[in-house]
Design brief:
- With about 170 residues, the protein is mainly β.
- The protein has one domain.
- About 10% of the residues lie in helices and about 50% in strands.
- It is built from 1 helix and 11 strands, in the order αβββββββββββ.
- Strands 2-1-11-10-9-6 form a 6-stranded antiparallel beta sheet, with no helix packed on it. It has a 5-stranded antiparallel beta sheet with strand order 3-4-5-7-8, with helices on one face.
- A hairpin with a 3-residue loop joins β9 and β10.
- It is globular.
Length: about 170
């Protein structure tokens, strides 16, 4: 029951972040970004770079997202959700725990679901998705992330390595 509720909160948050316009906005600042090496290739995302922190009943979550290319929809997103405990600074690792959900996604700029990558859904994910929130204030969040991402939205067998991930985002 708890896991189902967590998934529904995360899906709602992802829809909210996905529905953000991919046009130039106040969050398009050189100060705000997500960046990572994707299979060794450095990528930086600054369009609609945003973080949203929510509480629904006893579920706390934070979603992080940024677009790299407004025309293609290339983007990264990360999500942390947990029950009965607010999101704070620290390291969150995807695990098969009922009270914690740590997921991520990478869209290389496609509408083909089989070519979109996800992390945090595979039991044998190695290395596991790890998100560290080093700074979390009322107005911003920064930290690091890395892990193995699987194609087909996280359910496939093809993988990419996401390393040296960093983010500095405005928090709403």
């Amino acid at each position: 029951m708890k896991k189902t509720f967590l998934y529904s909160v995360v899906i709602s948050l992802l829809f909210m972040l996905t529905s953000c316009k991919k046009e130039k906005s106040d969050t398009d600042s050189t100060d705000y970004y997500m960046s990572a090496k994707v299979d060794g290739v450095q990528k930086t995302y600054k369009i609609n770079a945003i973080a949203v922190k929510l509480q629904v009943d006893t579920v706390y979550s934070i979603g992080l997202s940024a677009f790299g290319d407004a025309a293609t929809g290339e983007r990264f997103f990360l999500d942390i959700a947990q029950t009965n405990k607010p999101i704070t600074t620290g390291t969150y690792v995807d695990a098969a725990a009922e009270e914690l959900l740590v997921v991520g996604g990478y869209n290389p700029g496609t509408t083909d679901d089989t070519k979109i990558y996800g992390a945090g859904l595979q039991i044998d994910n190695n290395p596991r998705l790890q998100i560290t929130l080093s700074t979390l204030t009322a107005t911003s969040v920064s930290g690091t992330f890395s892990g193995t991402y699987y194609d087909e939205g996280g359910d496939g067998t093809g993988t990419i390595a996401v390393t040296e991930g960093k983010f500095n985002l405005p928090l709403y």
